[in-house]
Specification:
CATH topology of the largest domain: Growth Hormone, Chain: A
CATH superfamily of the largest domain: MFS general substrate transporter like domains
Number of helices: 18
Order of helices and strands: HHHHHHHHHHHHHHHHHH
Strand content: under 5%
Helix content: over 70%
Shape: globular
Distance between the termini: 27 Å
CATH architecture of the largest domain: Up-down Bundle
Radius of gyration: 21 Å
CATH class of the largest domain: Mainly Alpha
Largest sheet: none
Structural class: mainly alpha
């Protein structure tokens, strides 16, 4: 089937936006040591430069999915692009570590609005039998951002300073805003009557719960850290009960309780991101601190993983249209688990070619998992729930990223405390990194179960 100019335009808009977010994330990972030196931030605070962005995204992805389904996905998408672009400029002129963290949180809000609507916009523009390939292209754009981010982020940080990374993101955001305004178009008539009936106050418990779990984990092993995490868990329980009983819920709990294909696929995504996201964060510090590489050189090494993702994601997405997605996804999860186990054995004198080889292996596993898994999620719901399904998948992704960063930060706090990264002994850093990768490998092993036992997807794009 020939694609129309409108379809090409929508695919380009969603792909560029996907690229923009991950480019910034991977660029900042390389710039962290430079940020730490300028603002004299300790290891735990440095982790919040990444976590603040992820936390604000995660708290909004779930409710915004439902809101976008009712109020218009294109409208929410355009607002998100504007917020992301403006906050990039604010980050570039932050004058302290705390302000940078605050602006990163605002940036996460913009990312949440585009992430929860982008996939929904994309798949409604294409035929059902083309979902796999267009999602594969979109996912490839994500990984191209991850691939180019370390390289260009390292180059920009080394030559122009870390602030130039945010300025480049701002310029790219302006370009996306112009393209979006010109080609995206407007929503059809929205269901504002149903929107007004939504009980949004229940989402406050979700926001409080997620925030408390993340913040509390950063305070462990202090007693107040455990108490705050308990508060977060209770808030989640209250949120679930409210949504289960609401006539117009923000989140349909039945998607998890009555749709195993949807539920297990989302859990598998949560586990996959929980086990893999902190790889770049840890190895960026490892390569610069332990190996003594310059930011540009460290970024060049880290490019290996996302390059494999970008190359094989479209292929995996297309294959998922012909064979059961769970076969590809489970193979990918298994490959990731082996790669994470290998990373747990890194030493100060581990050869760089071996590290690159492991990253290529993990990148292949992630590519085989991600596109087929997203195809399954989006094919397991009706068209009127696409934005919510996209928002839920995005929530699993970002919460998984938060969990991954939280695990890394926990071991940093355990072995390094609030010591500045430059003053931390290499042995202490290596011990924290080793324990984190061991935990990540175990988590990935659990994910194999959910990926395999999710069930089959029928050729009519409905769950059995």
């Amino acid at each position: 089937m020939q694609w129309t100019w409108r379809q090409f335009s929508i695919l380009a808009i969603v792909a560029i936006t996907s690229f923009m977010g991950t480019f910034l994330i991977s660029s900042i990972n390389i710039a962290l040591p430079a940020i730490e030196r300028e603002f004299s931030m300790h290891a735990v605070a440095l982790g919040w430069v990444v976590t603040a962005f992820l936390l604000s995204s995660a708290t909004l992805l779930l409710p915004m999915g439902r809101i976008a389904d009712l109020s218009g996905v294109r409208r929410i998408f355009k607002i998100g692009v504007s917020i992301f672009t403006l906050s990039s400029l604010l980050c570039a002129f932050a004058h302290s570590g705390n302000w940078l963290i605050a602006f990163r949180a605002v940036q996460g809000i913009g990312a949440a609005l585009t992430s929860t609507t982008g996939t929904a916009i994309l798949i409604t523009a294409f035929a059902p039998n083309q979902k796999g390939r267009v999602l594969g292209i979109s996912v490839a754009a994500v990984y191209i951002g991850l691939a180019t981010g370390p390289f260009f982020g390292g180059l920009l940080t080394q030559t122009l300073g870390w602030r130039s990374v945010f300025i480049s993101s701002f310029i790219l955001g302006l370009i996306v805003m112009l393209i979006t305004r010109r080609y995206l178009g407007k929503d059809e008539i929205s269901d504002f009557n149903a929107f007004r009936k939504l009980r949004l106050w229940g989402s406050l418990f979700y926001i409080v719960g997620l925030s408390a779990l993340v913040y509390g984990s950063s305070l462990i092993p202090e007693t107040r850290g455990w108490l705050i995490m308990l508060l977060g868990a209770l808030s989640f329980i209250i949120f679930w009960r409210i949504e289960s009983r609401s006539e117009f819920p923000v989140f349909h709990t039945r998607l998890f309780t009555h749709n195993r294909l949807f539920a297990y696929s989302n859990i598998a995504a949560l586990i996959n991101y929980s086990s893999t996201f902190a790889i770049v964060f840890l190895l960026s510090l490892y390569l610069q601190k332990v190996k003594g590489l310059a930011p540009h050189a460290a970024g060049t090494v880290l490019v290996a993983q996302p390059i494999m993702m970008a190359v094989f994601s479209p292929l995996a997405g297309r294959l998922s249209e012909r064979i059961q997605p769970r076969y590809l996804a489970t193979m990918g999860m298994s490959i990731c688990a082996l790669g994470l186990a290998a990373l747990s054995f890194l030493q100060a004198d581990t050869p760089l070619p071996l590290i690159v080889g492991i990253l290529l292996w993990v990148g292949l596993g992630f590519a085989l998992f991600s596109s087929p898994n997203m195809n399954t999620i989006m094919s397991s719901v009706e068209a009127n729930a696409y934005a919510q399904a996209s928002g839920t998948a995005g929530t699993m992704r970002v919460v998984g990223q938060i969990v991954s960063m939280t695990i890394a930060t926990f071991f940093f706090a355990l072995h390094m405390g609030k010591t500045h990264m430059e003053e931390v002994a290499n042995n202490d850093f290596m011990l924290a990194q080793h324990k984190a990768f061991v935990v990540f490998a175990v988590i990935a092993l659990v994910g194999i179960y959910f990926s395999w036992y999710r069930g089959h997807l029928t050729r009519s794009d409905k769950p059995e």
